[in-house]
Q: What sequence folds into this?
């Protein structure tokens, strides 16, 4: 199963978190719920590139979910199609086929 390696910045604490998100599973990052719908990586004979289709929803306590982002993110160009949020940034680092290497605590 493909796994997206993501990083998230909490702008309040200025901390960066690295986390893995398996395709079609939702993970939490602060008040955000991140779902990776697809994660693809170029073969080794091509220039390196990873791309993931993400859905990001903000879920605050006792409020309706608010869809913030739906689209492709590219590891080589995080500013091309970024998540725009006052407190959090999320970007793609890599796509892999099994867990390992990048892990970290989430807020």
A:
């Amino acid at each position: 199963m493909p796994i997206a390696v993501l990083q998230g910045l909490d702008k309040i604490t200025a901390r960066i978190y690295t986390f893995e998100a398996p395709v079609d599973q939702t993970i939490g990052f602060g008040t955000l719920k991140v779902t990776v719908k697809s994660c693809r990586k170029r073969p080794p004979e091509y220039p390196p590139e990873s791309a993931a289709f993400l859905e990001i929803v903000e879920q605050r306590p006792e409020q309706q979910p608010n869809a913030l982002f739906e689209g492709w993110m590219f590891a080589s160009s995080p500013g091309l199609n970024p998540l725009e949020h006052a407190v959090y940034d999320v970007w793609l680092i890599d796509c892999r086929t099994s867990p390992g290497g990048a892990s970290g605590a989430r807020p």
Q: What stands out?
A: Residues 41 and 50 are 4 Å apart (CA to CA). The chain has a mean pLDDT of 90. The first strand starts at residue 3 and ends at 10.
